[in-house]
Description:
This protein folds into three domains: 3-110 and 244-310, FAD/NAD(P)-binding domain; 120-240, FAD/NAD(P)-binding domain; 332-415, Enolase-like, domain 1 (2-Layer Sandwich), CATH 3.30.390. The strands form six sheets. Strands 1, 2, 3, 4, 5, 6 and 17 form a seven-stranded mixed sheet that branches. It has a five-stranded antiparallel sheet with strand order 20-21-24-23-22. It has a four-stranded parallel sheet with strand order 10-9-8-14, with helices on one face. The protein has 416 residues and is α/β, with parallel strands linked by helices. It is built from ten helices and 24 strands. 25% of the residues lie in helices and 29% in strands. α1 runs parallel beside α7 and α8 packs across α10. The mean pLDDT is 95. The chain has helices at 13-25, 47-52, 65-70, 131-141, 154-165, 186-198, 296-310, 379-388, 396-401, 403-415, and strands spanning 3-9, 31-34, 73-76, 81-85, 90-93, 98-106, 110-112, 146-150, 169-174, 202-205, 209-215, 220-225, 230-233, 235-238, 242-244, 260-261, 273-275, 280-283, 290-291, 325-330, 333-339, 348-352, 357-363, 366-373. α6 links the parallel β9 (169-174) and β10. Belongs to the FAD-dependent oxidoreductase family. Residues 5-303 form the FAD/NAD(P)-binding domain. It comes from Paramagnetospirillum marisnigri. Its cofactor is FAD.
Amino acid sequence: MPEAKYLLVGSSHAALEALRSIRHMDPEGSMAMITRDAHLPYSPTILPYVVSGRSKPDAVLLRDQAFFEANHCAFVPNAIATGLNAKTRTVTLESGETWRFERLLIGTGAAPAIPPVKGLDSVKFHVLRSLDDAKALRTAMGGARHAVVLGAGLVGLHAAETMAEAGLSVSVVEMQAHVLPGYFDPKASERIEGAFDDHGVKLFLSCKVVAVEPEDGGHSCLVHLEDSRALKADLLLVATGVKPVTGWLEGSGVQVDKGVLVDETMRTTAPDVWAAGDVAQAMDFHTGKTALIGIIPTAVDQGRIAGAGMASDPGVKSYPGGIPVNTYRFFGRVALSIGQAAARDGVEVAESDADGYRRLVLEDNRLVGYASVDQPFDVGIMGELIRRKLDLSACKDAFLAKPVETGRRIMSEQWR
Length: 416
């Protein structure tokens, strides 16, 4: 039975940062990273560029084999975890192999969430979460004319843009009233929607897919909408969100809600088991409640804290809570959001349409959210203003008029 002092299940940003933290404290303790993927580590955020051809599959890897050898860590691909026994400290793989560990990181990330649409399982469709998914989608584009994308989130819109630029007729179906509803308010989304409209992408908003029907012997399909319209597709992409990969933890003693529940040091409810990244349900900075925040900065922070705890680092710091941060580039333009960019009750909202669009959300004269389209945006500065909960009442007018310049001045004074 193979064994490791530190067993890392998963191979993306959270696991890699945990590895780094562990090796900072313990250079020699035995370590293994097992992953369901067939490839060396890569970032899911780079996949749209593989689909478009701007990046070659072999050029998007985060680490090479030499990295693992230098860090004395066994890298085990094609290893799908199917069970965890926290009492015996063992992880079982789909192959039947069992790994024994002293300390475990759950970094299994998330997988595409497939909606319960009638007939969807009877047609060929694509998802975009892995490098193999990206390569398959790029190949399919070469023989397609009409593409339908289910979902107007980041993955769906990235793919829609790539397919439109490749000359395909593209339709995007979204249940919500505007695109990217998890990141932007309707006014910001309207600008993004306009860019897609200008490039010939048809957006079907506030629409629900009720059935999918195969056509032409399965070479194409009809996507039936709730309002009786039907869209023809010879390429169907399902991009309706993701869900944490937690099924293998059933009966393990690790408590799971929407994701794996963790405390302020990323410990789970099982002894000597930590979780980090898209699979972890950790504290949200704004609400103080647990939430899933599937972005790279969060995964890196959580992985670093989890790794420090696994290596018994006396300087391990508590997780301060996740703040959503998103950068979205589309048709040569850029949209950004951080924090609670969509207004809620009891907050002050300031908007500007001059030379682009920006939205600042304040509560008790403290910044809690910022979004912009086609305007300068310093993510680092705005993040610090939010996390430090700085009172902006003395300079609020200047901040609302020139948020980037004023924010930089405020933080330069804080850092002195």
